[in-house]
Amino acid sequence: MPEVIINNKKAFYSKTGNGKPSILLVHGWSSKASKSLGKLQKILSRKFTTIALDLPGFGESDNPDPDWGVYEYAEFISKFIKRLESEKIIYFGHSFGGALGVVLAVKYPDLFEKIILCAASYKRHNTQRSSMFLNTKPFPLFFRKFFYRIFFPDSDILKIPKLESNFRKVVTQDLTSMSKNIRIDTMILWGEKDTQTPIEKAKLLQSNIKNSYLFIKEKGSHSLPYECFEWVAKKIEEFIQ
Fold first, then answer.
1. Is residue 44 located within the same domain as residue 136?
2. Residues 139 and 225 in one domain
């Protein structure tokens, strides 16, 4: 895979296809692009140039600084886009990548023609749960792991332990208000049976974004880009064309 160095951090990506416009694919928290978005990229590459980025801390990319949250990750992506592309692109973000899409659309709108938010985890904030996460910080790692397994068995925090401090910050960053400032044409894709980001969040996101279109996959889960990649690809093609 080709690599790029931004702010002394090396990140890997794959670039396939040669059609226009270019589509940037950004994965969720506990994954990497080649694993979760590979099949989607393969289909989209038949018509478009597609770029799948492994975010810092995922795949073989360098780790982020421990204080990185959604804004720092979004800034990194904006620099990545400017390095690789000279024209406006289509942004596709799944889960955590969708949260980053909200920030990017508001802070760096000139980089994008359209954005696609798939099961975006833009609102993880829960005061009680976030406080519990933060209050365990002084304790040893073995205690924190035990605590997380008991009280947060469905959380992504244990999937990539090296990013624990980043995850702690991410889960306290609620982007609901920011989403109201998106002015770019936006497509929202969601699974009807998504338990990680329930369907109510999709409807709230649509109501917040003026130029947005919501499509719900019947019986779909949070894993739409790799479980229903053909459906996702079809919706993306329709949205672009």
1. no
2. no
**What's at 146, amino acid-wise?**
F
What CATH number is given to the structural domain containing 100? Answer: 3.40.50.1820
Residue 35 has pLDDT above 90, yes or no: no
| Residues 108 and 133 reside in one and the same domain | no
Residue 192 is predicted with a pLDDT of: 97
| Sole residue written with tokens 């801390």 | 57
| Pairing assessment for the beta strands 212-217 and 49-53 based on DSSP bridges | unpaired
Tens digits of per-residue pLDDT, 140-161?
A: 555 455 445 554 545 555 567 7
* pLDDT value of residue 141: 56
Is it the case that residue 237 has pLDDT exceeding 60? yes
Bond preceding residue 21 cis, omega within 30 of 0: yes
CB-based contact 184:107 (threshold 8 Å): no
Q: Which domain holds residue 159?
A: 126-165
Q: Is 65 helix (H, G, I), strand (E, B) or coil?
A: coil
pTM of the predicted model, to two decimals? 0.88
Q: Do 157 and 43 sit in the same domain of this protein?
A: no
pLDDT at residue 154 in the model: 52
Same domain, 58 and 149: no
